[in-house]
Amino acid sequence: MTPAYVVCLVLAAAPALPNVPNVLEEHRDVQQSITYSRYGHTVRLDTLPAARWDDLAQYLADTTPEVLHFAGRGTRDGGPRFVTDDGGEAPVALDGLRRCVTAATANGLHLLVLNACWTAHLAKEFSDAVPAVIGWQAEVADVHARGYARVFHRNLAAGESVAKAHATARMMLDLAGCPSSPTLHTGAGRIPEAHFLIGPEARSVPLRAPLNLRLRQSGLHLRKPRFRPPPPQF
Fold first, then answer.
1. pTM passes above 0.70
2. Which of 17, 130, 133 is nearest to 70 (CA)?
3. How does pLDDT run across 37-81, given as a tens digit for each residue?
4. Listed range (69-83, 97-111, 197-211) with the worst mean pLDDT
5. Where is the CHAT domain (predicted)?
6. Where does residue 177 fall: left (phi above 0), alpha (psi -120 to 50 degrees), or beta otherwise?
7. What distance in Å separates the CA atoms of residue 57 and residue 18, rounded to the nearest whole number?
8. pLDDT for 228 beyond 90
9. Whether 113 contacts 67, CB under 8 Å
10. pLDDT of residue 189
């Protein structure tokens, strides 16, 4: 029987230009965090490097991930930026992005992570459709965005809820002195503390050695050895 995987898609949407986030390193951080987590074997990590707009549409036409993680840059008054055919970048059309996200949610998307600057307003808006959405309130340094992604996904794949994994990652940012912070938004009636990436069907029961019932029932393990007198001395 083919195992059922939780699919996590990383959109590495940034060109190879100076002063641009190293999204391939972010993908590597997420991959290692998931691989070495307790339930990492139940997660399938997909990536779209140097992602264009049509890459996302084509992927969603064939596969619906449970988690969609955008790694790249955001626009202060617009949306996430995607790679263009000339090797540059440009913000995505928000109406088109809304339609993609809404359609993916209807098919099983549960979590959207917009790991880019100035995406908190989109996270709040998209939470009307997606059960849980994360975005950044302001500009964020690459090292802090990558650190958040690393801790967040590691704890998700370890079996923690979205709310707890987010809180743990934010605590790491506080210790690192990050001036900005990501925010978690959920729709009405949705409880992030009850939202998990790893469901109960994927949580294996630890194996234990079976009891030797014959020995236990007979009571032989409780009997004292029979006393034997020492041999006579001549």
1. yes
2. 133
3. 999 999 999 999 999 999 999 999 999 999 999 999 998 887 899
4. 197-211
5. 20-171
6. left
7. 27
8. no
9. yes
10. 86
User: What letter would DSSP give residue 189?
Assistant: T
pLDDT value at 143 more than 90: yes
Burial class from Cβ neighbours inside 10 Å (0-12, 13-18, 19+) for residue 196 reads buried
DSSP 231: P
**Phi, psi angle pair for 110, to nearest 5°:** -115, -25
**Dist CA 197 CA 199 (whole Å):** 6
Compute the distance between CA of residue 89 and CA of residue 152 in angstroms, rounded to an integer: 27
Written as six digits, the tokens of 185 are 């938004």
Do 59 and 48 meet the contact criterion of CB atoms below 8 Å apart?
yes
Average pLDDT of the segment spanning 71-93: 90
The DSSP-derived string for 118-159 is T-HHHHHHHTTTSSEEEEESS---HHHHHHHHHHHHHHHHTT
For residues 90 and 84, is the Cβ–Cβ distance under 8 A? Answer: yes
As a whole number, mean pLDDT of residues 133-160 equals 96
For helices 94-107 and 53-62, what crossing angle results, to 10°? 20
List, in sequence order, every residue forming a beta bridge with 184; answer none if it has no partner.
Answer: 134
pLDDT at residue 202, as a whole number = 76
- Res 211 pLDDT > 50: no
Across the strands, what pairs with 46? 9
Is the separation of the CB atoms in 70 and 114 below 8 Å? Answer: yes
Distance between CA atoms of 60 and 140, rounded to whole angstroms?
28
The residues that bridge with 112 in the sheet, in sequence order, are 68, 133
β-strands 89-91, 67-72: how paired? unpaired
